[in-house]
Amino acid sequence: MGPPHARLALTHGDRDRRMDKREIVQLLEEIGTLLKLQGESPFKSRAYYAGARVIAGLDTASLDELVRSGKLQTVKGIGRALAEKISELVTTGRLAYYEALRQQVPAGLLEMLAIPGMGPKKVKTVHDRLGLTTVGELEYACHENRLVDLPGFGRKTQANILQGIERLKQHRGQYLCHEATREAQRLLDAVAATGMTSRVAVAGSLRRRQEIVERLDLLVSARQVEPLHSAIAKLPLVQDVLASAADCVSVRLQSGITADIHLTDEATFPVALHGLTGSLAYLTVMQEYARERGYRLADDRLLRGNEPVACQDEGEIFSTLGLGYIPPELREGLGEIDLAKRGELPRLLEEQDLQGVFHVHSTWSDGMASIEEMVHTAQALGYRYLGLSDHSQSARYANGLDPARVQEQHRIIERLNARLDGITILKGGEVDILADGSLDYPDDLLRQMDFVIASVHSRFNMPREEMTARVVKAMQNPYVTMVGHLTGRLLLAREGYGLDIDSIVAEAIRLGVVIELNANPHRLDLDWRHLRAAHGQGLLTSINPDAHSPEGLRDVTYGVGIARKGGVPPEQVLNTRGLRDIQEWLAQRRHGRLHA
User: Fold this and answer.
1) In sequence order, which residues have a C-beta less than 8 Å from that of residue 578 and are 6 or more positions away?
2) Three-state SS for 390?
3) Is the pLDDT of residue 592 over 80?
4) What pLDDT does 146 receive?
5) Are 31 and 136 in contact (CB under 8 A)?
6) 89/74 Cα distance (integer angstroms)
7) Cα(210)–Cα(244) distance, rounded to whole angstroms?
8) Cβ of 517: how many Cβ atoms within 10 Å?
9) 181 closest CA partner among 92, 236, 285, 255
10) Cα–Cα distances in angstroms (integers) from residue 485 to residues 99, 135, 193, 471, in the given order
11) In which element (H, E) is residue 482 found?
């Protein structure tokens, strides 16, 4: 279930547009949450959560066809009433039932749901018992110790809520990269569709593939400035125009994110794009380097004396200055200009370098699609293998597999592999690292798997030294292939647990254990800053989507962005290897013949 506070603000400007599948899923989930906040029967809210999971598992074409044919209610988990509401959303972009519910629930209650530990039941309690309707009121009530005697709360819970409110205030106005990417693409497409531009591009921190973005920067080569200003103001996805000048229009989108649309002309577009992309530290060093070479690098022009140097694209800026091309992801002022001077920039990973994926869940544990559905989507994406890794038995919340179910799943995988053509399923598991560092399955079961992902899913508050020892002990098990989401962080929601990452990386290199780069945009773990140091020491990583649905397999793109930002070359990414190479590597690892 997605975050209930990530709601869709349907306004008069966009009620007639088509909703995409992701928006429909979010809206159904929010209806389930609104019903919980109203104290409705749990069966009613569960029906909407279940419907959201079903819709998430359908591809867009199938959903459209089911709506057109009137057969949506024949899908398991979608009743007649729910089918009617989904059809209304698909065909009109609005839902009167949802809008009526939103009017009945104070908006502040939904904002409270963004606070860790404040689920619908607790939010309803503080509203019913104390009359609280906003996060500010909740914060004040905590300072007055008004929550300690409420049922299900207490002094510790109150302290945790206060801490969560502080984190919420810190992160207000920040967006995960996948949210920012989606909004940037919609805005880019809308501006291009005006027909008043010759070139458009994303710039800023999003182009550098930062994991968290505060605002969007777009660059537009404008043919007609004033008509374009007017057209931007009328775009359905624009809520407000915040500022307008000859060279920039600042807007707030319906999603809440702020975007600066910078206007330039065709001749200055490449240098302006360069200037709007690099971090301040990068641009400072780059401008000094240009000056030493007899040039001046301004915001939108490269000058030799007072004469502009014509550049058709960014590549000509670098070649004019005697540098190799620095990819946008690396423009952070962290030594990349020196590497470019020496011709030592690495060849960065490309998405097409990946031959397969690991860390994929199915309906056998907490996934939303069958093994076959996940495999077919992976094959459509061009992958040659799919590493299935459902949760282990201790993850009861995720329907983790006991040993008997693991054996049954292996038999099904073998039957599927016998008839699959062009793709192979690798038998694996995401196995919990228990508190003492042991694994959730015995070695004789681990030995039967093609690969094992060892992950921490409990006891996050262990002291740093104990957590480090816990992970190191797990890596020392000879059947562990890789460690999943090493720090356990959830971006904008939960800090990673305490770890001596340098020690773990050194031990992983010594043992030949892979540290995954979890590509889920809520995680992006291991952080690119750690990757920069670790790959230089020889760490092997794997770009894993942690996919719980067919759509989740596409999250690989965010992991590739982080790998590029960390300067990771393709040869240090496990899943760039072909099927035969990967099977041989995994077999050697499994039989103890592979070392650092």
Assistant:
1) 355, 384
2) strand
3) no
4) 78
5) no
6) 18
7) 27
8) 29
9) 255
10) 38, 31, 40, 11
11) strand 482-483
